[in-house]
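Mods, move this if it's the wrong board.
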Amino acid sequence: MDPTITKVLLYSIAILAIALAGASILLVSRWQRRTIRLFISFGAGVLLGAAFLHMIPEAAHLIQGGVGPPMLLGFLSLFIFEKFIMVHACEAEDCEYHTVGVSAMIGLSLHSMVTGIALGASMIAPQLSLMVFFAVALHKFPESFSLASILAHENVSRSKIFAGVLWVAAMVPVGAILTLVFLHSVSNRTLGWLIAFSAGTFLHIAADDLLPEVHTSTMDRKSSLGIFLAGIVVMWFSQNIIA
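Not the wrong board. Structure tokens:
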């Protein structure tokens, strides 16, 4: 079997397992909000570090020019989709959950597919693949936890919660496989644009979905900041480890 396909399959299995773990932890036991916030803070640091320290420099090297347009396109694509198309649960601790319908599931699925595109692009540039997988995996855990909490709040059965979480998580390997199938042989410039686009989506996920958790709470602000910076440091040191 082709090594790239093998790697995609292994990453896909791991991502699905992580997504199920995120949902299972909520349904099996109660986690303190503080613990979840620290995990999200670390994930935000990893995503920012992945984008700024790995993906953007690699895209700039491949494009041999400005990476601003594809990054902006990636950032805006998720911003417009999430803010004007998707149905979101309010992130504030004292806010009631909004209704989550079919449109929200479609939105989260497409969100995951875009993340899968980032993973697929990293497979074409092998020096990025493990780092991008690490960032995607860390993002998938709190995302699945949040989705399960929303569905549980609406009294959805456990079987349907797990089915929904699996469906959304499965869009990551779908996006990765589609990227590999249609873009397995592309020019360096095209690959650079794809990586820069993916970096823009990472910046949006970190800045809009995860970073608010670092500073919105009046408790454990220093701990959240510390673990957030730790995520960036991990990505900094991984420059010399991941090749």
